[in-house]
Amino acid sequence: MRCVIARFPFDLTKTGVLESMKGVKPEQVVGESVIIGRRTYPVKQVGQVITRQDRRDFSAGEVLRAMTQLGFTCRSLPRATVPTRVLSPLQQASAMLGIPVTV
What we know:
Helix content is 35%, strand content 18%. It has four helices and five strands; from the N terminus they run ββαββααβα. It has helices at 14-21, 43-51, 60-70, 89-96; strands at 2-5, 8-11, 33-36, 39-42, 73-75. The chain has a three-stranded antiparallel β-sheet with strand order 4-3-5. Strands 1-2 form a two-stranded antiparallel sheet. A hairpin with a 2-residue loop joins strand 1 and strand 2. The model has no long low-confidence stretch (mean pLDDT 87).
């Protein structure tokens, strides 16, 4: 499959990526990740290995798109959850009665 990463065209295959990542120890995953074989790698590490470019030269999205098209399982950042506000018993009772809750 032909894809463009950091403005350079690459002909990538699933077996080629598997061979490139063989023997590479995965770094700690903090953001987006790709599962290659039985290991989970950070996207930027995979991009650096398969393109031989500096991690600052490409985005995680470019590599995620290419790995997804090749059939690898990719995981993105978990969505930030909105913290729920804990109401005091008085505020909860007021809310149940339909009276606006003040902070």
